[in-house]
Amino acid sequence: MSTDWLQWHDAYAGLAGRLTAVQNQIERHLTNTNPDSVRVISACAGDGRDLLGVLAGRKDAARVSALLVEYDATLAARAREAAEPLPSAIEVVRADAARSDVYAHAVPADLVLLCGIFGNISDADVRATIEAAPELCAPGAEVVWTRHRREPDLTPAIRDWFAGAGFDEVAFVAPENETWSVGVHRLATAPRPFEPGRHWFTFLR
Ligand SMILES: C[S@@+](CC[C@H](N)C(=O)[O-])C[C@H]1O[C@@H](n2cnc3c(N)ncnc32)[C@H](O)[C@@H]1O
Questions:
Q1: For residue 1, pLDDT beyond 70
Q2: Is the CB–ligand 1 distance for residue 98 below 6 Å?
Q3: Domains (ranges, CATH) in the chain?
Q4: 10, 45, 114, 192: least surrounded by Cβ within 10 Å?
């Protein structure tokens, strides 16, 4: 990996719209599922500001538990710090989020965040990750994902791959004057059994 992800997070302002769009989807999911408990998985979570920012503003945050997986030690530490005051049960693990084993104790999840991943891995790995996503999901779980739409725009293929993996599209937010997009897909078929020992993707930058 050559990208300085710490610096990327410090310059997040350019992606403020994307963050809001992701947080809106998390809010919607939590509101729709109230008062049930919600288990969240966030892969390549960064400092966790999307989920943790939402939880910080919710009175019902105690019903949410989450596993955040992030490779960078400083970002993982920031996530832990942000999670500390919350009533939610938040586990931050510093590990390779591409390895299925890291999720073994946290599946099935009701909400899976795959944000900031699909623009940094090969198209084949995007597809493999989407095809593996049902292994992380409880019945009816939602996956929130992001991807830029610079040419060649992969989002039409991504949406097809989610459909092929048994998901219905809940939302696709793609403002005309922006290059980011945020998608939400709900598992409409039976979840697939979790497979340990898999490696789904490799960051290219
Ligand atoms: C584009 S950022 C996305 C952060 C956050 N999900 C968001 O959308 O704001 C990508 C993050 O993935 C982390 N990362 C890259 N490869 C990883 C891996 N194999 N396992 C875990 N984290 C990884 C980077 O350190 C970085 O924090």
A1: no
A2: yes
A3: 5-187 (3.40.50.150)
A4: 10
